[in-house]
């Protein structure tokens, strides 16, 4: 097992608003955002890889080239001759974002169709990272096979990290979403839920309720994000609460949680104490939401 961070999910074409009132094209997606920031935050002796499926068209070529230029290993990416990548458009109102999507037949929905390929990619991984969106875009049979493969990677020593990232529009219904999220929680070591979403769909009354539910599912460590409020961490060693310094100006919250996850994991997986690792995630997320777009160059951040 090597120092390899494997993120799994869907990367899409991003159309982001500019100050001129037009849109600029980029590439993003929740797990890709985390991989992008992870490459910048993890030490150089770590490999950061991305597992997805894309097309063989020009825009798919540009997407893969973008990842390569960002230092992300693209060898795990599968190419499909029959499909292309999805697209989303960001709409901003007072710093809060909403999205319009075109992704219903994207290549990423086939990322787990070849489960032998998935297992081969996960075999040398030290950290396996995926989200609720990763499993939401998969057909039911592929989702079941994917979670089983992740569970086998965990049994062989990989640390599995899961951000539930609840997006009900991607699921047939809320019951299916919630059941699938908890199935994923059962094969992970670290869960990184966002309290607002969890309260909305699971009915959690407090962040501690969220943490306890994921702990009961089998997660060793649960780090509950809560926007500008304190971060609640619960593990077998107890409960830790980390305050969050308010951000003076919020420009775009698109990748707040994704960047937090990268900053936290880069510190925590290198042996930094839990509270300091959370603070690293908070600092990075705070810098990211002060700029436009999902991916903010490290020169613009205070990570």
UniProtKB/TrEMBL annotation:
Lineage: Bacteria, Pseudomonadati, Pseudomonadota, Alphaproteobacteria, Hyphomicrobiales
Family statement: Belongs to the carbohydrate kinase PfkB family.
Protein name as annotated: Sugar kinase
UniProt domain Carbohydrate kinase PfkB: residue ranges: 5-295
Pfam families reported in the protein's UniProt record: PfkB (PF00294)
Organism: Roseibium litorale
UniProt GO MF annotations: kinase activity
Classification via Gene3D superfamilies: 3.40.1190.20
Domain of life: Bacteria
Keywords recorded for this protein, A-Z: Kinase, Transferase
């Amino acid at each position: 097992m090597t120092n390899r961070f494997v993120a799994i999910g869907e990367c899409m074409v991003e159309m982001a608003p500019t100050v001129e009132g037009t849109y600029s094209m980029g590439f993003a997606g929740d797990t890709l955002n985390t991989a992008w920031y992870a490459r910048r935050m993890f030490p150089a002796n770590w490999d950061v890889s991305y597992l997805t499926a894309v097309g063989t068209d020009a825009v798919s070529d540009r997407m893969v080239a973008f990842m390569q230029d960002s230092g992300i290993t693209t060898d795990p990416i599968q190419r499909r001759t029959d499909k292309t990548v999805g697209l989303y458009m960001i709409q901003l109102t007072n710093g809060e974002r909403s999205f319009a999507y075109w992704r219903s037949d994207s290549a990423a929905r086939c990322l787990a169709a070849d489960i032998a390929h998935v297992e081969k990619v996960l075999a040398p991984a030290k950290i396996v990272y995926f989200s609720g969106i990763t499993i939401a875009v998969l057909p039911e049979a592929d989702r079941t096979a994917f979670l089983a493969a992740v569970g086998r990677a965990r049994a062989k020593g990989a640390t599995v990290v899961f951000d539930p990232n609840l997006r009900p529009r991607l699921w047939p219904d809320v019951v299916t979403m919630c059941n699938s999220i908890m199935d994923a929680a059962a094969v992970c070591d670290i869960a990184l839920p966002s309290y607002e979403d969890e309260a909305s769909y699971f009915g959690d009354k407090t962040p501690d309720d969220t943490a306890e539910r994921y702990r009961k599912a089998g997660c060793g460590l649960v780090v509950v994000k809560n926007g500008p409020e304190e971060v609640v961490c619960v593990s077998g060693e107890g409960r830790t609460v980390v305050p969050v310094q308010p951000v003076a100006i919020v420009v775009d919250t698109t990748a707040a949680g994704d960047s937090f996850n990268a900053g936290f994991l880069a510190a925590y997986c290198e042996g930094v104490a839990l509270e300091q690792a959370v603070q690293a995630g908070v600092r990075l997320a705070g810098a990211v939401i002060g700029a436009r777009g999902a991916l903010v160059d490290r020169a613009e951040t205070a990570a």
